[in-house]
Amino acid sequence: MSEFAAYTIIGLSVGAIFALAALGIVLIYRVTGVLNFAHGAMGMFSTFVAWQVFYGYPHPGMPSWAVTAEAILVGLAFAVVLGLLLELLVFRWVRNRPQIVKAVITIGVLLALQSTASLIWKNNQYHLPIYLAPQDWTRTVAGVPIGFNSILIMVVALGLAFGLGALLRWTAFGRAMRAVSDNPTSAALWGVRVDYVGAVSWMLGSVVAAVAGILITPFINFDTTSLTLLIVDSLAAALIGGLVSLPLTVLGGFVLGLLETYPQIWIQSLGLPRLIALFVILAVLIVRSPRGLPGVAR
Amino acid sequence: MMPGHIVRFAVALVAFAILARLPVGLDGAFQFDAALALIWAFGILSIVLLTGYAGQVSLCQATFAGVGAYGAGMVVASLHGGYLLGIVVGVLFAMALGVLVGLPALRLHGITLAIVTLGIALVFDKYVFQDHLFDWFTGGTAGWQVANASILGIKVDYSKHLLAAYDILLALFCITAVLMVNLHQSGAGRRFRAIRDSEVAASTMGVNLTRYKLLAFAMSAGIAGLGGSFYPLIAGSVSPQPFWVFTSLQLAAIGVLMGVRYVPAAALGGLFMAVVPDVLTRYGHGAFMGRVYDISNDWFQIALGLLLIAQLILLPDGVWGDLRNHAARIRSALPGAARKQVRPA
Fold first, then answer.
1. CATH hierarchy code of domain A2-288
2. What residue of B is the nearest CA neighbor of A97?
3. With bands split at pLDDT 50, 70 and 90, how would you rate the model's confidence at B291?
4. Phi-psi sector, A133: left (phi>0), alpha (psi -120 to 50), beta
5. Looking at the partner chain, which of B107, B126, B301 has a beta carbon nearest the beta carbon of A274?
6. Is this complex's ipTM strictly greater than 0.95?
7. Interface of B with A in 96-115 (CB under 8 A)
8. pLDDT tens-digit map of A11-48
9. Where are the domains of chain A?
């Protein structure tokens, strides 16, 4: 029973990160119409920038929390720049192209980012994860150890989800984003600066991806490819939300995290979680709606 | 035979005659690259059929090639069958997987199909090709070792007779390429193109969507698997690494980059994919004007990603398509040139 509970904690933590990554995908997809296959790669690159600050340089005389904060801030700042550059240099120029062309461009982004990271930080090499809190900060509740890291991840994921939801729902800028997502042309006619909204969406999405990447490092075999390939799990979570709904996406992330974690009680297999993610994708796409997703334009 | 058929046949024959003896003087590694280029050319050819003709997106073509490779390896190394049988089994396995992948494609389009096929590529990469549950198919972590293979009495093993394997592969590629161009004009090819342009319109005109979508997936997977089934032959063994998910992404990227609707683009792309990384790792390090540089394999993928982005923004029809358009414009500008419709083939 306590084993079950322990795996539940792991599943919820991993699921929270899937939810976060999926939120970024949904945000970018809704506002700019780009299904971003490079989302994992973008998060991966920003995470490695943070990792480089954390482990790459000596930090004489700084307390450990300050080093962590510095690494995270540098990583997130990099994510903002990366998102902005991608929008300015690439996606601004293809706004009126078919959806699938934009998706294939993100595959080009994925390949370029992944191999650049592999060039700098070497692929298939063990990297120490970034711990936000010391690992021995655990509290045992009813015989089940709950790590402070796990709690932090869930709090951050839920907080960001509510934050994004509130931004979209209650601020003028969120209204502009929703207007652009409904119809860029009429939004532009009403005075919404579509370029600006698109750029901010890319920056926000990139930051969310970076947060997800930094948080997940203690849970997976942390290297350049594994973070890049998280895209499949994140897409599965995003599909549960229909690529539209933020609450359903968060729920989908948690459900997927649990579904992928529970079988590990009995079967130790690195590849099995990917199979479960694929089944979730197939189930959502084929069973839920007979002609694909309602929100997905063809 | 129509004149077009004769011209295509002659072009394929000349191409075979030139290319067959081209790698003779090269060292073993470059001969391996030449054969590998053909295997990836088959992979891109399968994308030309599936995406260029039938309009179905797939990000798991290297998986089909890998299934072909493992199928052939299993028959030869584990069941002690002849290599010809290995190729047949490899192709059949790939086609069966193609039909399986085609089933969800009956209900999906565009980006949703891309997501599903990416998931399939990842599952095969991390699970089927690596998990102990499938050791009977993959030969465990050691993979299958293939030595002293022969096809119809011709010795084709990788260590001494690599060029014989290359020639057989090249002949098969030339035949498949001609068949592909013919397919484009045939009834099935027209149905594929109707599905690509509009599924609703195609089914209104009486095209059996189920049959032709599954056919496109089966044929495409078979072509990729045919190339892949030669991998154990030219490399001597099979491992998951050449068929992992990034190879699938690279194949799709190169297919689009070179021109996803054109058969010759597949040959161009295969050459690009096999030779450029090897040349980079071989000659990409040294010193230039006092500065030491090291251009490794990763630079190939960086360049590929950036080229793909630039191509999709600037030349939507791909490298080969753009060359064709230029050639057609020059031809029509020449005095006395008859106006001729440019058709993709």
1. 1.10.3470
2. B313
3. low
4. beta
5. B126
6. no
7. 104, 107-112, 114-115
8. 999 999 999 999 999 999 988 889 999 999 999 999 99
9. 2-288
